[in-house]
Design a protein that fits this description.
The chain is of the alpha/beta class and 234 residues long. The protein is built from 4 helices and 5 strands; from the N terminus they run αβαββαββα. The protein has a 5-stranded mixed beta sheet, covered by helices on one side.
């Protein structure tokens, strides 16, 4: 192809052909590389995004495991509270004070309608229970017969109250255990050296210690201001 000069006298340039220069080829390559870069970047980002789920999933699982562990403790506590966990239960311990027979002598006064009951009780308490007894006596004529037995103790004797309470337990429970009145309610107002006085009423008269002391009833009520209700002598 010939070159035709233009009017200026200069030689005109030829239009570049596709095979002559590198510009068109370079542009196409750049486009291809750009597309490849975009695709590669998309794949990389997606890979990063997918790979990031794993730590998140791991952390969530770990937290769940921790919650399960805590929840397990709570369930254990709930089970223990609800009786699900077997905890050995020891039976309650009941402390029974010992029977005290020493430190104060005992005198039995007949305050009932059964003849010879004071003597019989004296022998039973001495030989069968270990108390120290003095000779029996009768109740004051102002007292007469009483239905429920009463035990008095000398407040000046430190051991007398313990002996009196033990006597009440041996007799199967006595309604009143109280300090001795200023004048003992015996027929002569004397105790013959005893520190404990058993006013033997109809409830205990003529009975053995085995009959009077059932295991189900050994309580003794201690009072400070006793009164004795009885009938006139007869």
């Amino acid at each position: 192809m010939s070159e035709v000069p233009d009017g200026s006298g200069q030689m005109p340039r030829r239009a570049p052909r596709a095979g002559d220069g590198g510009a068109p080829v370079s542009g196409a390559l750049a486009i291809v590389l750009a597309v490849v870069a975009v695709v590669a970047g998309f794949l990389i980002l997606r890979s990063i995004s997918d790979g990031g789920d794993t730590p998140l999933d791991f952390d969530t699982s770990a937290a769940a495991d921790s919650d399960d562990a805590d929840g397990g403790d709570d369930e254990t506590d709930d089970d223990a509270t609800a009786g699900g966990t077997t905890v050995p239960t020891l039976p309650p311990t009941t402390t029974v004070p010992p029977i005290v027979t020493a430190g104060a002598d005992v005198i039995v006064a007949n305050a009932n309608g059964v003849g010879g009951s004071a003597s019989s009780m004296t022998r039973a308490l001495e030989t069968g229970a270990g108390f120290t007894l003095v000779d029996p006596t009768n109740a004051s004529s102002t007292i007469g017969d009483i239905e429920e037995s009463v035990i008095y103790y000398d407040a000046a004797n430190a051991a007398a109250q313990s002996v009196a309470e033990s006597l009440g337990r041996v007799l199967g429970g006595v309604g009143t255990v109280a300090p001795m009145p200023e004048t003992p309610p015996t027929i002569d107002g004397e105790l013959n050296g005893a520190g404990v006085l058993l006013m033997l009423g109809n409830d205990k008269a003529g009975k053995t210690l085995a009959e009077l002391a059932p295991e189900a009833d050994t309580g003794v009520a201690v009072v400070t201001n006793p009164t004795i209700a009885g009938s006139a002598e007869g």
